[in-house]
């Protein structure tokens, strides 16, 4: 079953010596079956090796692909959430430097459930959605937390086609279990009745132009 739209109809998209990848007929998500996920211990061990830091100018440049278009749209003193902030939170620091207040949530490094019971002017998740074991639940939850007129900004590399996927480094990270395409995000925007903008081929900005409580069924 597709972990995003829960459609039962899917085909094998690709396989290698370690994993099999399926593609959903409805939302076009490419996904790894749960029995091929890493254990939670092994997953955290992989994340512990990340060397991201707010003092790293290259990492800041990487995050600016989301930071800049979102910052241009925010009103002063906005309230945000950095979901999946990781062991070296940086995007939150960049927004705080511009006068915004940012909460952190990360399953391993900032496990703060109260952060998921508030509403926000903006939510960011950079290099996060490809790790989600249950993207339907998590993305619906995040969208519910976005205030009317607010934004959900995502950063993840996009699936192009089977030929490119075969040599794509992104799939080789065993913590990556969901792979989104433009079509997948367009499907999601349709479900949410939201405005969707793409930047730099790996940044998606959803705008909650109304205040519906639409969720993935």
Structure write-up:
This protein has 217 residues and is an alpha/beta fold. The protein is 28% helix and 24% strand. It contains 6 helices and 10 strands. It has helices spanning 40-48, 57-73, 91-97, 135-145, 162-166, 182-192; strands at 10-15, 20-24, 30-31, 79-83, 101-105, 120-126, 146-155, 178-179, 195-199, 203-207. Strands 5-4-6-7-10-9 form a 6-stranded mixed β-sheet, with helices on both faces. Strands 1-2-3-8 form a 4-stranded antiparallel β-sheet. β4 (79-83), α3 and β5 form a beta-alpha-beta unit. It starts with 9 loop residues before the first strand and ends in a 10-residue tail after the last strand. 34% of the residues are buried.
Order of helices and strands: EEEHHEHEEHEHEHEE
When the domains are counted, the total is 1
Largest sheet: 6 strands, mixed
In CATH, the topology is named Rossmann fold
| Helix coverage percent | 25-40%
Structural class: alpha/beta
Report the total helices: 6
Shape designation: globular
Which CATH architecture is right? Answer: 3-Layer(aba) Sandwich
